């Protein structure tokens, strides 16, 4: 296992991003088209929020119910977005990324350099790179997986596609009975130290209770 792997080595330099003024409907369509659960909200090159698929869907459903005619509710990403994703430096070790994923209960972090978002690292990237696991500072994962909305692709826009890669669905370790104990929840996508088996899936305790 390499111990000198850094965020810069594995981060997606092109990732899905939207601005606060982008229509929520467009952002929701992007989530569906790209098969991802997370978009980064950008203000210029700065990551200022995240748009999760559950937040987007919930807001659109609520607005449609209130409108009563199924018309465009006129919502923007900025009116629905959640707090920014955790950030790391491109020169940080992957172990640092894992600590942030577990501590914040998210499935990805944003790499920031000189105040601008330059990449994204997902939980599956960390698992694939074989970062050492600490298992400390863990807490229940957040119910909504964050990220952002509308797409502007390419380096000029400081965003693009991460290929729609969702969190890894395989547990990284098992107990004596072969049941998963640590890895990425197949339901909510959070990296947790205490996966359990439920209905043939490796899930976190919170998702098991749903």
From TrEMBL:
<feature type="binding site">
    <location>
        <position position="188"/>
    </location>
    <ligand>
        <name>Zn(2+)</name>
    </ligand>
</feature>
<feature type="binding site">
    <location>
        <position position="207"/>
    </location>
    <ligand>
        <name>Fe cation</name>
    </ligand>
</feature>
<dbReference type="InterPro" id="IPR000644">
    <property type="entry name" value="CBS_dom"/>
</dbReference>
<feature type="binding site">
    <location>
        <position position="207"/>
    </location>
    <ligand>
        <name>Zn(2+)</name>
    </ligand>
</feature>
<protein>
    <submittedName>
        <fullName>CBS domain-containing protein</fullName>
    </submittedName>
</protein>
<feature type="region of interest" description="Disordered">
    <location>
        <begin position="131"/>
        <end position="183"/>
    </location>
</feature>
<keyword id="KW-0408">Iron</keyword>
<dbReference type="InterPro" id="IPR044065">
    <property type="entry name" value="ACP_MB"/>
</dbReference>
<dbReference type="InterPro" id="IPR046342">
    <property type="entry name" value="CBS_dom_sf"/>
</dbReference>
<feature type="domain" description="CBS">
    <location>
        <begin position="81"/>
        <end position="141"/>
    </location>
</feature>
<dbReference type="GO" id="GO:0046872">
    <property type="term" value="F:metal ion binding"/>
</dbReference>
<feature type="binding site">
    <location>
        <position position="185"/>
    </location>
    <ligand>
        <name>Fe cation</name>
    </ligand>
</feature>
<keyword id="KW-0479">Metal-binding</keyword>
<feature type="domain" description="CBS">
    <location>
        <begin position="11"/>
        <end position="66"/>
    </location>
</feature>
<dbReference type="Pfam" id="PF00571">
    <property type="entry name" value="CBS"/>
</dbReference>
<keyword id="KW-0129">CBS domain</keyword>
<feature type="binding site">
    <location>
        <position position="188"/>
    </location>
    <ligand>
        <name>Fe cation</name>
    </ligand>
</feature>
<feature type="compositionally biased region" description="Polar residues">
    <location>
        <begin position="171"/>
        <end position="183"/>
    </location>
</feature>
<feature type="binding site">
    <location>
        <position position="185"/>
    </location>
    <ligand>
        <name>Zn(2+)</name>
    </ligand>
</feature>
<feature type="binding site">
    <location>
        <position position="204"/>
    </location>
    <ligand>
        <name>Zn(2+)</name>
    </ligand>
</feature>
<dbReference type="InterPro" id="IPR051257">
    <property type="entry name" value="Diverse_CBS-Domain"/>
</dbReference>
<feature type="binding site">
    <location>
        <position position="204"/>
    </location>
    <ligand>
        <name>Fe cation</name>
    </ligand>
</feature>
<feature type="domain" description="ACP-type MB">
    <location>
        <begin position="180"/>
        <end position="210"/>
    </location>
</feature>
<keyword id="KW-0862">Zinc</keyword>
